[in-house]
Specification:
The complex is a heterodimer of chains A (237) and B (247).
Chain A lengths: L1 H15 L3 H34 L5 H11 L4 H12 L14 H37 L4 H11 L1 H17 L2 H7 L9 H11 L2 H36 L1
Helix pairs in contact in A: 1-10, 2-5, 2-6, 2-7, 3-5, 4-5, 4-8, 5-6, 5-7, 5-8, 7-10, 9-10
Chain B lengths: L14 E10 L2 E11 L5 E4 L6 H8 L7 E6 L2 E2 L2 H4 L2 E4 L10 H11 L4 H14 L15 H14 L4 E5 L7 H16 L3 E5 L3 H7 L2 E6 L2 E7 H6 L4 H7 L6
Parallel strand pairs in B: 3-8, 3-9, 6-7, 7-8
Antiparallel strand pairs in B: 1-2, 1-4, 4-5, 9-10
Chain lengths: 237, 247
Amino acid sequence: MQGFSEEFRTAFGLIVTGDPGLWDIVLLSLKVSLLAVLIAACIGMPIGAALAVSRFPGRRFVIILLNALMGLPPVVVGLLVYLMLSRSGPLGVLQLLYTPAAMIIAQVLLVIPIIAALTRQTVESLDAEYTEQLRSLGVSRLASIPVLLWDGRLALLTALLAGFGRAIAEVGAVIVVGGNINHVTRVMTTTIALETSKGNLALALALGAILVGIAFLVTALVSMIGISREREVLYHA
Amino acid sequence: MRDWDGAEMLTQPRMAVENLRIGRNGSTLLDVPYLALGGPGPTLILGPNGAGKSLLLRCMHGLIPPDGGTVWQDGALLGEDQRARQAMVFQTPVLLRRSVAANLDFVFRRQGIRWRSRKARIAALLDEGGLSGKQRQAARSLSGGEAQRLAILRALACNPEILFLDEPTSALDPAATQAVEALILRASARGTRIVMVTHDVGQARRLGHDIVLMQAGKVAEHAQAADFFAAPRTAAGRAYLSGALVI
């Protein structure tokens, strides 16, 4: 166990000295996951909201399916995106495999179900309260979607953070479609996996600490929003 | 079937319903052969729980499609044009999770009014409802009375010809009730036709020009308020006013 203390010291040094190799990896991670969440939000929120206000046969099945997709194994999503983007795949001509774009696509697919399912829940419960009032004001079902999204903004922020938490911590999908290429597609999680197996524990530990810090921050934000929402409910009671 | 035959009935009624029926699971919830709301109002709808008061209101506002029958407004079938000239205030105010001013602005923006003009109208309405100075406050943090006043102001922002109110003061204390009633009476004086459901006989006496008493989904009696409170024509009316439990 004596050797590990040296590793911890080196890891600490890497973080505080702002080692450029380390921060490149952190920045790429943030860039990929933030973009993925942004794109997933643009797709997932309208889907979730539309599902919340619409009524059609098989709607329950779609909701169950959407909830089930939240538990999609990242490595399987990576495999599917790999098949699509590989040279002989349908999107092979785009030559996106082993680029950050491929990683973003994979994470978008992972995050959409989370954002869509949480948006559906939020909007549906809000709609139960608003539906008569909005109808009374002459707001159509379609036009009520942006109203409900805006008024559910706090809960939806939680959904975004949950999606980001999943994207930033996920390793299976990005390693399959990104290939973990140094300086190109190497992100925090894939680097930790690689460096640990190589025995370079200092870099793995430094990245691990940063990743834990980010995950902690996201969780703290989610619960802070949750607390302020509870307070709002109490106010109204 | 004829409704009560005051001189007001000779002119076109503001609202009228004909053969209105709603049933659920074999039981009749609403059955009104004919009801005409003429005159200047306010019309106060009285009756026990489950008498169909709220249901009647929602049918006239087009929120619930009846199983049968028709709703008329100014001689025309109730449609989107007619609905646009109505507004409704609910028993529990449903306020948007925004500021007090933004709740009113929501309505004005939908009317396509420009910001300068909206700002002035919001200020005027808040002043009217005694909510000046609270415009930036979160609407959901208002007290019960303030919240209901804001809901009424928002309904008035629609500039309705007819305003439906479903027991707007049932959860309020006397002071808050008085403020809400004053707001309603001022709107009525400016020409908005008020149709309001209440449980409170005292409130019906204070506000009502004509009274609709409902019982078990039917209109038991419709009369001028003065006549109704002096001498109800029906047994149901007499029982209701004598304080007996009408079910």
